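Hi support team,

I submitted a single chain yesterday and got back a structure, but I'm not sure I'm reading the token output correctly. Could someone confirm the output below corresponds to the sequence I sent? I've pasted both exactly as they appear in my results page.

Thanks,
R.
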Amino acid sequence: MSADPNSVPNVLVVEDEMVLRMRAVDIVEDAGFHPVEAVSADEAISILESRSDISLLFTDIQMPGTIDGLKLAHAVHERWPSIKIILVSGQMKPSDAERPENSRFFGKPLGVAQMITELQNMVGAGALRIVPDPTRWPVDQALHASASGDPASWPAQEAVLSAENDSLRLLLEQAGIDAQALLIQAGIDAERREAADKLQRLILGELHHRVKNTLAMVSAIASQSFRAAPSIEHGQKAMEGRLVALGRAHDLLMQVSWADASLTHTLSSATEPYDEQGDRRFHFNGPDIGITSAAVIALAMTLNELCTNTTKFGALSVATGRVEIAWTIDEPKQRLRLVWTERGGPVVEPPTRRSFGTRMMESLGRQLSGRVQLAYEPAGFIYSLDVPLGSVAAPPEAVLSR
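Hi R., thanks for writing in. Yes, this is the structure output for that exact sequence:
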């Protein structure tokens, strides 16, 4: 459910991670406001320079581009002091002195009820309120709602994810203690031990960041999978499929030490589980290139939605159906165009509602600074992605080093 953008305050959501940005957009809408999306601080500045109706900036801190979210917040506070500011991060926690005056900070994963309340306190009551207040629920009632699939179960799920996050933090701390004890037992001299300690802190810090970011993404996937699901069973299956797709993308990146992977391998890995008994119902046609880790995850999640939809309703729902995935590189314009074409399936009819999967497929274009088109042709569904080559391609030195 969305508010009318002509009658409610606008909130600028700045987040480079596709799924997390969609989650933030949902939070803004549930608070009763109209979200305006940006994937980088540079894009956010351009939006602010072109319009004067933004009431609040809701931005992640870690982002690609010339400036990060913290610098963006200071720039906005200086140029547009009337705009309220909320900062979020799964990696760092800026002090009051490091943040703009009167700004607020929240760590990831985000608590939905808390964020809705904070947005409404900072901007106003909003145009609507569709999420119940979990503080009014007894614990046993919240748990019962979670088991029954009632939408009010989301706060209980948030509590579980928060507890899991605390457990992971304790495990990381214990890992540091154990590693220190092993170094001492090994008799490593003080200088070498100090160097090892620094390396250990760097590794644990990076691990902690990845765990927090992954938890935030899992929380977002869980929330949005149940958000519009017609039943608890549908929500569970959708969430499981998306988490498996995320896991496959991580497995692929682990094979190349979390560096860059190839486009062909990414497409093959994402579609393989849906190619029944090796029937080769997917056909690939295009030049292989190295792509960044961010592009691997974004493409894997999008392809999972495409595969799920074609298996249920499209070409692969019948034995004669096929899917062609073709891509070309326009060297003069430095653009990549990828087209997913379904053939041999049932007659296609446009959907009656805009689902989370559809939103994710469309969001990939914004994620990669390009365009997405969905064509519901009677002969077969067609998905087209047209993006700057620089948004997905790995640097040449990264490809050569593999």
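A quick pointer for reading it: The longest strand covers residues 322-330. Let us know if anything else looks off.

Best,
Support desk
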